[in-house]
Amino acid sequence: MYYSLITSIQTNHTGVHALHNVLHVDLLRRARQDGEVLEPHAPETVCRALNALLRGSGVQILDCQAVPREGDKQFHARYGAKERKYVYRLLTGRSVFEAERAWCLDLRPSQQKLNVEAMHAAAQVLVGKKYDFSSFRGKDCQARSPVKMIRSIEVVNVRPDLAHPSQSYGEMLHVHVRAKSFLYHMVRNIVGAVTAVGMGRLPPAAMRDILEARDRSVAPPMAPAHGLFLERVLYVEDLWKEEEAREEEWTKGAGADRNLKSGEKGG
Questions:
Q1: Phi-psi domain of 85 (left: phi exceeds 0; alpha: psi -120 through 50; beta: other)
Q2: Which CATH number applies to 83-233: 3.90.180.10, 3.30.70.1230, 2.60.40.10, 3.30.70.660?
């Protein structure tokens, strides 16, 4: 039996976290006697057993599913992935609780408000088309081509954490980046540039200049690893669900608009 294990396992980049990752593995149930054929363990049983073994390791299995090993519907965790979503957490102040889970800028209270609108606007230069991302490529990147296409980048304020009432905490920002694939250190390099814009060290227009330079040396320093989280790995089924949700939302909106017009005529 072939299982897909959906886990919060870390990526292979030191210091980077994962909220959701996917792997697959072959599991064979060992027979107790020669010639004995046993039914495979249920996914729920596998999930409980693995979490028992992983207790205290920092890794948790969230779900297990039996998936096809062969044929047209064969599942492969890596090659079957259609898109990946990352989130980078930025804290303008400092916090001992977030020291390993966010980039704590440790700015003075008077400087702790970044220009989120400028950060978001600058990031849109990188979205929607295939570009040469050499300026945002790590030096040890082994990808054959620096050309990638980012589907979306969003920079948003996050609701203040009530557990941190001190002014030293500052603001929490999330940078969400979504694409089919990324170059080595690409997200962290983008966050480094976007943060420089938010702090006023770069004008928003500089993002296009950096992109077009195709030279890593012209870009700001890379953001540290511990603020980066693999947020989600998306497969064909996930994209279908998103499309269905968009169609349903559009249908509801169109229906509400028709009802409004009908009401206006009736009045």
A1: beta
A2: 3.30.70.660
Report the 10 Å Cβ neighbour count for 76: 13
Asked whether the predicted pLDDT for residue 122 surpasses 90, the reply is yes
Query: What is the Cα 23 distance to its own chain's centre?
Result: 16
Q: In terms of DSSP H, where are the helices of the chain? A: 43-54, 116-123, 186-198, 206-213, 236-266
Amino acid at 167: Q
In contact, 64 and 5? CB cutoff 8 Å: yes
Percent of the chain with pLDDT over 90: 47
Spatial distance between the Cα atoms of 255 and 267, rounded to a whole number of angstroms: 18
**Residue recorded with tokens 């440790």:** 106
* Dihedral-angle region of residue 158 (phi above 0 means left; psi in -120 to 50 means alpha; beta otherwise): beta
Q: Of residues 89 and 22, which shows the higher confidence score?
A: 89
pTM equals 0.81
Residue with tokens 């169609």, as numbered in its chain: 247
